[in-house]
Known about the structure:
By secondary structure, the chain is mainly beta. It is 10% helix and 50% strand.
Amino acid sequence: MRGKTLFACLLAVALVLATLESTHAHGLIGKRFFPATLAVDDPFVADEMSLPTISYLKLRGTEEAPATHQIDLSGEISKRLTPDLGISLGGVFTILDPDPGKAVSGFDNLEVSAKYVLFKNAGHEFLLSLGLGWDVGGTGSKKVGSESFSTWTPQLFVGKGFGDLPDQLEFLKPFAVTAALGWAVPGRTHNQTFETSDTGEVEVRKELNPTVFQWGFTFQYNIQYLQSYVRDVGLPAPLNRMIPVVELALETPINGPNAGRTSGTVNPGIIWFGRYLQLGIEAVVPINSDISKNVGVLAQVHFYLDDILPQIFTWTPFHGVLGPTQPQ
């Protein structure tokens, strides 16, 4: 019911904004627009803000804890320092509601990241970027599982549109894929705890903090690209600005007891984009029971700050005012 209500609200906003037609969009290379995807970070740098991003998933129970409803309310703001270099700040407020039990809530650790666009090829709709993520240890609440140590994640981002395919494959041209690969290295190898037995003996326990390979992919089909550059099939607003998308957000521990066991989610959904913002909603389907046996929901409102107020939001310390990503 929560997911249906949220989808109805997002669709209503999309219908109101559908008349704001524009060819300007921040994630553009050649003729290809890449949206800001919800679960897997895109390869672009831009002046933008996601607020709010809302996710819900019922986590499976364990021997130590009952099944828990998890709601995450998050936001992120990104800023260009140069045309190809950007930084981002993000935070998550988490609500954990065990069944049975008392709900707890709090902020997760602050997330700081930098991204640099290393290579672009407009003709082949190709983009390659490097990034570095920093999960700032100790900035969140232990009640919701925030770690006291930092985690550093070198990242590689790739985007590729298929508009360069031959005309015999014209209906594949609106397809695009992106990938985000990360190597999350904890700042502390072990968490050490002390337990005292009934006889007074002190036992030292060490829990490994594993290094984790984070890997994600998105598969997109851009309806606007289809109607503008391939064939106009006559879809009206707001359908003409929809991008059906499937995201895979996965992670694999490299060491520790779960080394090599991949967990994560597959997120089918849809994104609508206008001139100043985009709306997205996805189902959250776990690939196995490690996280949950249930299907959740993920929704986001994303603002293109570089198009809303370019004279304010696109100022940089090194290049002055960059203006909107695409000329007005």
